[in-house]
Fold this sequence. Notes:
The chain is about 35% helix and about 15% strand. The protein has helices at about 15-25, 35-45, 60-70, 90-95, 110-125, 160-170, 220-230, 255-265, 265-285, 320-330, 360-365, 380-390; strands at about 50-55, 75-80, 95-100, 145-150, 175, 185, 190, 195-200, 215, 290, 300, 305-310, 335, 355, 365-370. The strands form four sheets. It has a four-stranded mixed sheet with strand order 1-9-8-5, sandwiched between helices. Strand 2 (about 75-80), helix 4 (about 90-95) and strand 3 (about 95-100) form a beta-alpha-beta unit. Helix 9 runs parallel beside helix 12. The longest helix has 19 residues, at about 265-285.
Amino acid sequence: MPPKIWLSSPHMGGQESVYVQEAFDTNWIAPIGPHLTQFENNLSKISNGFPVAALSSGTAALHLALVMLNVQPGDYVICQSLTFAASANPIRYQGAVPVFVDSEEDTWNMCPEALEEAIKACMDGSVAEDFPAHLNLDAKKGKKPKAIIPVHLYGMPAKMDQIMEIANRYGIPVVEDAAEALGSNLNGQACGTFGEFGVYSFNGNKIITTSGGGALLGPEVNWIDRARYLATQARTPAAHYQHVDIGYNYRLSNVSAAIGLGQLEVLSERVAQRRENFSFYRQELTVIPGISMLPELEGYYANRWLSAITVDPSQTHGKTRETIRLALEEENIESRPIWKPMHLQPVFENYPYYGAKRVSEKIFEDGLCLPSGSNLEKSDLVKTVEMIKQLLG
């Protein structure tokens, strides 16, 4: 069996071990410490100066955002359907009702037209029609959604100008899921800094990693201070353990933050490497009839966390993305289908969904993520391309 070519594996920059050793030498092993503070400060510098709370995961960050927005059981929260389950799960943690919205073809992210349709349905009560009684949607008929969760899929910025215009017009907070988009920007503004809250992820497969971890950011320092408080079990200042709120064990550890300090130092390099991967795939593969890749619109800058192709079987002699995936797997090359939309997932299939064009379903059916790590060798990329060309040639 040839060596494994991974989809997106961790890539250390060299200084991580220095910062971790420093944490050990100074005995800052506990959940908070100077490396955590510095990591938050450095994240803030690349995020419009917004205050940042470093947390145990991007999911924890999304959850705390919904907690602070006072999302309650039965409330509606609008969520992009084409995403990982972590974007939607925190809605259910709060007992709220996810209302899923389709994607548009330009970025594969939340469709502004479908978003407004969903908002109107929530406000006039029609969202509650034709859904199972156990959802108890009647209890919140005619209620404005508590939040909107757009996602920057695979590092491609969503149409935030349009999404924010709609959200502001209806007075609905936006929780911006930028878990995959650290280093991406729209017209020079960092992804994660458009809404009331932004979320990053530092999971092991992300563009930088702290082994596991995430962050919540936003323009209001009081909200981020409260996030830190809630993330440390909501312990109030007292000689004894005293609590007036329900809290969570969501804080990032100082040791993990030390890894993050080293990773942040090479972020721009990692983005450049992933964008080079995408450019190589685009040059080599889009000349094949039936293979396409998502371009950037004017003013959009994607970190290209994952490079994805779509496969049109009508032009590839019936070969599908699954045909390619299985062939690559035979050669120990990891690839992965595009996220399965949330409204097609068994756990969410009975919840409301808006998107007559079914764009997300088509992307899932035809889309495949190729090896995209910043630590890939050129020979890895060449081998992947040659395998696809042989299969479709």
